[in-house]
Amino acid sequence: MKKHDQDFMKRQNRLTVFEIVKNSRPISRAAIAKQTGMSPTTVSRIVNELIEEGYLFESDQVSEGLGRKSTLLDMVNGSVLSVGVELDVAHMNVGIVDLQGQLVCGSRFDKEPDESAERTIERIGEAIGELVELNRIERSHIVGIGVGLPGIVNNGKGLVVFSVQLGWKNVALADRLKALTGYDVAVDNELKVKALAEHLKGAAIGSTHTALLGFGHGVGSALILEGEIYRGEMNSAGEIGHTTVDPNGMMCECGKTGCLQTYINISSLLSEANRIRPVKTIEELFEARRAGEQWAVQLIERALMYMAITVNNIVCMNNPDSVILSGELIEKFPEVYDEVEKLCNSRFIWEPLRGSFTFHRSGLKEQGVVIGSGLLSQNRFFALA
Amino acid sequence: MKKHDQDFMKRQNRLTVFEIVKNSRPISRAAIAKQTGMSPTTVSRIVNELIEEGYLFESDQVSEGLGRKSTLLDMVNGSVLSVGVELDVAHMNVGIVDLQGQLVCGSRFDKEPDESAERTIERIGEAIGELVELNRIERSHIVGIGVGLPGIVNNGKGLVVFSVQLGWKNVALADRLKALTGYDVAVDNELKVKALAEHLKGAAIGSTHTALLGFGHGVGSALILEGEIYRGEMNSAGEIGHTTVDPNGMMCECGKTGCLQTYINISSLLSEANRIRPVKTIEELFEARRAGEQWAVQLIERALMYMAITVNNIVCMNNPDSVILSGELIEKFPEVYDEVEKLCNSRFIWEPLRGSFTFHRSGLKEQGVVIGSGLLSQNRFFALA
């Protein structure tokens, strides 16, 4: 019954009304009531709130057809913008995102060596200020900030519980950034917001069970179920990097042996490569494979096999209709996507589920986290009364 | 937006009203409207339908407190019963389930050797007839039949797509059984209905993210998310038996190598045991382990390790608050549960998620599938207008 408690329904109703106006504008109050099954009183209350707050207005148009004429509601253009932030190991991306999920403007910063969490948060605040000023964004149109980052995030509290990649533990990111900027801040795992963006505006529009996999510096996944991020009990669903794929396998930084990420992620691949000869970058490793160096062929083919196994395991467990492959390894090396898809179809997907889903590349590419973070912030704004 | 379309909301509202009356009876129409946020008109329409259909009645009591007195609604006792059926490799269980999820009466039948699907369905129909007659059940109180079985089920059509255990492929179970009995028939995977039963009436009451694992003749899992069975795109979520745990592992009946079930399920364990000496039953194998025969110790300890790995992998992927271990291996051999829990806590659960969930034995034991199937049928009855 949790889904239908009173608070949840109130928030959901507000978001539903806004979404309907956004997608079917101009539209009458009566039509909204009909589409949602809400009472006319509830619809009127929500609409009046949204008009008062400056997001909707009553247009001159009146509804067509028989019956009483009623004025139609429309959206105030540009009334809603949000800031999306991607926080990664070595850099930050900051962007302004509009209601349609378009990036209005953006900027990118490298992190300083050994930058503290506090300093990083200050720099995000400064970057947002500069972006707003430089692009003459009306401050009052910004409804909030969303931040996506690798690691386990308590999204309710806006707390970064644990991020190996950032070296952060229990950082109250939302509170600190709100104190610096004055805006409400939503924080989430980068793959969750990326998947949300792909579902709303990218490769998986219309999908009801979307799985996004990220293969890069980390290994992770995210599910979007009927339009909503699947979070699990403490927002750490999707941590496939630490599923055990070989109990006799390599030591993982987490203290277990044979975690999936030890076969796939970039630092593991480089550390394995360096058993043979000095290899500084992932590009060098793929170069060695292309040159036919057998050790590099073996190492990368093992990684590709485990990527295909991962797709199978997620498909068996969650039965998605769409699987999006993303992350640095996919985006930098186009052959990786093609080879993983081929391995899946020829060997690794359990036969009864072959053809039960479609493969996709990311539609928003490296913009996914910024756009998704911005959309997350907008969703939260409209859902909170 | 799919979750909030008009049809879905209508069905959900009807079920919600019925659930509230069931759990808070006697209750007024106004209180239902307040608790749900539905309009008084909608509540009245649904309540009137349910009264007309004989499930609710207006009691003599009137609501207390200030304001206008209003009559209170209550349930007609015994007005709703359903039939739950468990269909397994070697036997069938049939039971009558009441609104509280109690088994009113039940019977068990062995299947005949090489019984056809058609014959099995006829025998289910006969068994239901006998059960109803013998226990003087009022036929009009039975709202439908639910059937739980191992395999992939198209739950919308009531079609058994594929069941290795039953040897069935594309069997229109719901249609056939409805033709024989006259009742509406809901069909689903056994672990999904078992998990539903444990969530509603068993070990996981109050849990919002429940994972149930079944270790027995097959290996599978089910998720209950906020009270609803998680199905995925084609109702085959939870098929963990065919996740690959070792690409160099044993040949699975599915044609892949190293599927999880080749390390855990009863027939695989027996087939491995028979490489050493003739072993007919799983009890014999566990006996050999207790007697300290090293090959049996190794074989079972490997299975226990893979069970613990499976718990970790599900926890990493889905982040549940409760994990229920069930199935023949758990229920027949109490040490299995204890050892898997110990292995999980000492070695196999990824450290950040240790303590993020509680372990449970099945609360309904071997009754879970019959009760869950019965409850599934009731849920469907109240959700369909």
Automatic annotation (TrEMBL), chains A, B:
Pfam families: HTH_24, ROK. Keywords: Carbohydrate metabolism, Xylose metabolism. Residues 20-74 form the HTH crp-type domain. SMART domains: HTH_CRP. The keyword Calcium does not apply. InterPro entries: ATPase_NBD, HTH_CRP, ROK, WH-like_DNA-bd_sf, WH_DNA-bd_sf. Transcriptional repressor of xylose-utilizing enzymes. Belongs to the ROK (NagC/XylR) family. This is ROK family transcriptional regulator.
